[in-house]
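In this supplementary section we document a worked example of the pipeline. Step one takes a protein sequence of length 556 as its only input; no multiple sequence alignment statistics are reported here. Step two produces a three-dimensional model, which step three serialises into structure tokens for compact storage. The input and output of this example are shown verbatim.
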Amino acid sequence: MLATRKFMQRKKKEEVFKDAADEAEQMNWRRMMREIEEAGSAVPILKTQRSGKGPLPRDVILGTLVRFKQLKKWNIVSEILEWLRTQHWWDFSEMDFLMLVTAYGKLGDFSRAERVLKYMNKKGYQPSVISQTGLMEAYGRGKQYRKAEAVFRRMQTSGPEPSPVTYQIILKSLVEGDKYKEAEAIFEDLLNEKRTSFKPDQKMFHMMIYMYKKAGDYAQARKLFAQMSERKIPLSTVTFNSLMSFETDYKEVSSIYDQMQRAGMKPDVVSYSLLIKAYGKARREEEALAVFEEMLDAGVRPTRKSYNILLDAFAISGLVDEANTVFKAMRRHRVEPDLCSYTTMVLAYVNASDMNGAEKFFRRIKDDGLKPNVVVYGTLMKGYSKLNNVEKVMRVYERMRIQGVEPNQTIYTTIMDAHGRNSDFGNAVIWFKEMEARGYPPDQKAKNILLSLANTPEEQQEANELVGNGAIQLEVKPDNEEVDDDGHEVIHTDAGSHRLLDDTQTRNHVNGRIRAGNYTFDEDDNDDDDDDYEEEDDEEFNFVSFKDKRELNFAS
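The serialised model returned by step three reads:
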């Protein structure tokens, strides 16, 4: 099970250098890049590379800028460019200004973007599509959505004419700001506009499909998918991934997966993970494992997120041995488990009603240098609540508070649930009021628990007054536990779902070899926006959360 494939084994690549001097230069540059990444700041490191008062070699500067641009470390890019503005030995050109505006756009720092554009205007540089798109993006990422749209409309009426990248960014900004009508209007105008030299491309369709998914309008999303074929917009793995993400039934997800393969598209790590998630939610662990093995056989390297999804497929059914096998395989395959992985293992023991095992794994979290959060404590509390052990529930709560971890709404509801299982109306009322006092509006489950415990007329009156529900008795479903769209365990109530696992995201920073004689920077060189719909998050796909800023990243 989960045997290591050849492609997962590290092989040292032999590099060929021109000569000893070239090798020394490359090794020095890589060492400098590592130091910058470790320090989180570039200028102090770059200053040490200067010999006396002489300038730094141009190819070192350009190579460093290009590499951090590729890594999307725009804070370091902007830091280097701002420093270069003050250096007499560097000719700060219009291209440098444009990259600086773009960096501030990616960072959402509209104040600095405005200041740079004002300076460029003073120096006689004409507004360009790059500078205006950068400013528009800065407003969008800075949540100034009206200003972002105003810049876009000004470009439409007065120029410079918006480019496809401009349209991609304004659509992304509006969708992230839940400005669905505005985004839809821009997209429809582009579909019907005869003056423009281009029509909506694949990325724009993907963004709009994603918007309808986010808005819960699956019918419109599917309609848009059909339009892609009608308009001869090329379909891609990303397109099918977006369709798979809509579905909750594993049969539908599997059907779309098969359709993708019939269309000649190769599944990527996102495709496999979505299918694994669907099987896991349906408690079809064998199929989930088979898909994971298929992914390995296809030479697709699993991400930490995909391991966590497979781990969760076993955890929700309390299959501890299988979950442990996956957990060990992560390290064997050089994928370091994160807090989400550990929490899922605790959940596996909880669902197997093995609280001794859960406590042992909880201690491993600290032993391995991680800090348990409210989700881990909540998972333990839920386990003891299921066993009707109120004393242990409260002990875990006290441990959590001693460690300085603040409770959330789910914690209070779990405590109420524990008292509810023991028919303790008085304590349930106390924790209901505590939840309100802490600023957490009681959810439907908490209200249901309180109402179900009220037996006497006086208790019923008090419960109804607290929940503001008249005399309506609601059904309590304390044990209806499923997995949310993140592949994480949740407790479903009439009011919604409570997540029991955090999203922990990872980034892979790779130092590569850059030979830069000069860099070109034009408006189409915007690789940061290649379907980066999940916010600057994610080289990894955030598989399952489509709420707030945890949305689907169509670029796997």
